[in-house]
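ENTRY TYPE: paired fold submission
RECORD: A
CONTENT: sequence, then structure tokens
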Amino acid sequence: MKEIILGCVTAFFVVLLATPSLITVAKLKKLVDEPNEDRKKQKDSIPTIGGIIIFAASIFAYSMWFPWDDLSYYGSPYLFAEAVKEFKLLMAAAILIFFIGVKDDIIGVDPLKKLVGHGIVGFILVIMADIRITDMQGIFGIGELPYMVSIALSIFSYIVVVNAFNLIDGSDGLAAGTGVITSFFFGLWFYFTKQYDDSLLAFVLAGSLLAFLVFNFMPAKIYMGDSGSLFIGATTFALTVKCIETDANLTPAMLKQLSPAVFALAVLAYPLVDTLRVFTIRIFNGVSPFSADRNHLHHMLIDSGQTHRYTALVLYGVSICIPLFIVLTKEMNATVAFLFMLFVAVGLTHAVWFFRKRKKKAAQMVPLAE
């Protein structure tokens, strides 16, 4: 559909053309991230409100090119009404999560109030819009889920996905680039399964983030802040669930043997595995899983002496490779495919960790050799 291309291009150019002005305004108003000696290693003051333009461009392009007048695509007035209802609720959730992020970027948000805000967004998406996981598709022998279990699992998934993108936003270009990759994979999935409105949303987000990378890749001139990472996380959650819930009748022959659930998890494997790994480390260390540290993969690479550019490119590679390995699961049942995907995801992410350990060990041996 031409609307998908036009939506992506529109979002791209809105971000590309508007971001320089946003950077200027942010510096004038002192909406910047100041360097320090603890966790923020940049040398200059950098604006932290890039999420404003990501949000604005995505909403603008999605609203402009949404297939409002293509009733033949939906097949019936009822399905069209359902699509419009979902569109409105997605917009409501996006606006709320965006303003939570903006307030957090500018003056901070009390953790309890932030949790309440996430609860409302989760309620809108999962219960009102009915964007929820209803079936495990045979993974570990589990099929259709009871309604309350479906609600609980979906809200938990929302919290995990949103926090995953929020937590990997710690290196120049990393969260934006990962968002481009995940959105691109989901956009292709929805296009080939003829879910064009969802494909439009995915490619609009990809276009916005690709243009933002022009200013966010090393050396970063602007950061997306929570207003960006939370919006990306919430949108990605919706795309993930809708991918998992793809109607088998819409799946073309080339995708027929792939499990939508395994594919969706593979697309998100890097941020999910990294987040769960860090949470586990923090819990074992007796601290809150939400406390700040430098145990993320990107922190480990940077602390081992690698640049932000190298770190981002390595982790982009991990994000791309894991979904591509899913092609090998076409002949496997859902449980084996899931375990294979998990093995590949953990293996690739920990290969990065192993590289850091080797580098540190090699550095320690140099003085002995001299």
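RECORD: B
CONTENT: sequence, then structure tokens
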Amino acid sequence: MWGRGWADVRPAETNHGKGTLTETLGIAGSGTIASGLAIVASASTDVVLWARSDASVERVNKAIAKGAPRFEGADADRIKVSTNLSALDSSTYLVEAIVEDHDSKAKLLADLAELTKHQGDETILSTTTSSLSIGELGKASGHPERFIGLHVFNPVPMMKLIEVVSSPETSAETKKRTLALCEQLNKVAVETPDTPGFVVNRLLFPYLFDAANFLAESGLEPKAVDDAMKLGAGLPMGPLALLDYVGLDVSKAIGDSLSLKTPANMEKLISEGALGKKAGRGFYDYAK
């Protein structure tokens, strides 16, 4: 869900996948996570990515064209982007990667299940959610036994971890194929329980929100707090910069799922539309 930017990555850290994928991969979504996953997979196989609109197609093609040359083995020509959902109908492994909203995801997952019903029980359905219940989304898909969480981290080409989240209904075969896919993508899979925040966000966001509260209490500048944590705790990114990188609106949604009270200074920034790096302003002003 979060991580270092491209500029922070040394060339030696790039890795391509381990051979040809055994799954036919389809990705429903056009955001940063979707494009990053497509770039990684393109090092091993052809990928089909669905985008909702022509504007989304243009945006994701730009992201792929920019990101693929920076990831060893990636081939932008192997990524087909389409606004036609039926382009995903031959996928054996589908990844839903749209907005972090239960109802939106539930509808799309049901549509994907209907689209691939001609394959019987072969197609696995998955989601990249960082905060929603895998059990509830699995029920919404209509096929909880072949539904699983595939929580990848941003930027996807650089971050090794994937949290693999199953519900009690997830079949052993679905888990097996998912773990194999992670290995073929050269990722480290950690199986986690279907609890709010899984592992990383469960432990990370109380710390991030505490940093935002401390900023208000101390009167320090964001850079002072971030420098202290980077230099004193050896972290690659300070907590306030990380909140901006994730997006303050997304961070609030994750905090809500963990029953965390959003810090007042974050609420104020969100109300002003200052959602972090993507908006040009958050705890930091990125227009400077």
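NOTES ON RECORD B: The domain at 201-279 is CATH 1.10.1040.10 (N-(1-d-carboxylethyl)-l-norvaline Dehydrogenase; domain 2). The two ends are 26 Å apart (CA to CA).
STATUS: closed
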